[in-house]
Every structure is written in C-alpha cells, then in structure tokens.
Amino acid sequence: MPKTEISFEIVEHIGVLSTGSKGWTKELNLVSWNGREPKYDLREWSPEHEKMGKGVTLSKEELDALKGILEKRE
User: Taking the domains of the chain in order of start, what are their residue ranges?
Assistant: First the structure.
C-alpha cells in the first residue's frame, strides 16, 4: 500500500513544553493538516520542523475542556 503524503502548515506556534537531548521539542501549535481548518496540536518536532512524532489534535472546544479538567486538578 503506497504511503499517503501528509501536508501541514504551522499557523501559530503557541509554546514549547520541553526539549529532548537530541533537540526535538514537545510543542503546542495551531496546525492545518492537508489544507483543513487549523486545530490545536500537541506533538514532538525535530529541530527543523521537518519530522514529527505522533501527537494529539484538539478542536477549540476540546482544548477548553482539557483546560477545565487541568484547572480542577490544581
């Protein structure tokens, strides 16, 4: 089965959560995948943002729900 090419555009860089020993960063960004509406995206990126690890994408509503859950834990 041929590999499907995935296109992405980092619309907004929101922040870096951590940096690994090889320079990869765990980041929260607003990313448009395959030309779709941008979503909040949490994943590891290579230093040049050419490669990425597996991650999680969240809608604004999901991000707000996560924020509420985290605030209750404090």
Answer: 8-73
